[in-house]
Fold this protein.
Amino acid sequence: TQLLEQSPQFLSIQEGENLTVYCNSSSVFSSLQWYRQEPGEGPVLLVTVVTGGEVKKLKRLTFQFGDARKDSSLHITAAQPGDTGLYLCAGAGPETSGSRLTFGEGTQLTVNP
Amino acid sequence: KAGVTQTPRYLIKTRGQQVTLSCSPISGHRSVSWYQQTPGQGLQFLFEYFSETQRNKGNFPGRFSGRQFSNSRSEMNVSTLELGDSALYLCASSLGLAGGLRTQYFGPGTRLLVL
């Protein structure tokens, strides 16, 4: 069974602060996705990283895939209240197929104004 | 283009009953996947349907079943409900068989409470 551990589980910070969320596994993934989920809604895909060592930026969000494709991180610069939500990482393959994404339990981020 | 819709949004059932949840994918999407989300276990994959055939299945008991219709709409059924089945059930659609590089679009979910 492939497991993804996210840390921290909960994070409460002030507007303007920086933060990093980690997603770790002992398994290798062919790709890794990050989602954000807001109350009453389903997760929304933010990014997919595929290559070991890959770094992708989405405005103030920076995503990195570990060299060994076993871990990933999400860094948010100058967090804003609109960044509040549940951040989920999800890994695919190589053992899995189809839609069998393995999700982490999520990091609940609260950004206070 | 309308997003993924799920009905009903909220449901209260008692132990032993059965329940059917419905999912309408984005128009043109042929793959529908179902997930269970709980505070303790996070998001867990239930199954995926593509062209009316189950293509992938997670580690859930046989009480959980699903089907897909020719218009790609999907239903999932849970029989003999248990308290532990209380969860948010999410449906996701994608153009083809969803994999690590495919974008899955999630619906808002059906929140099921079993008393």
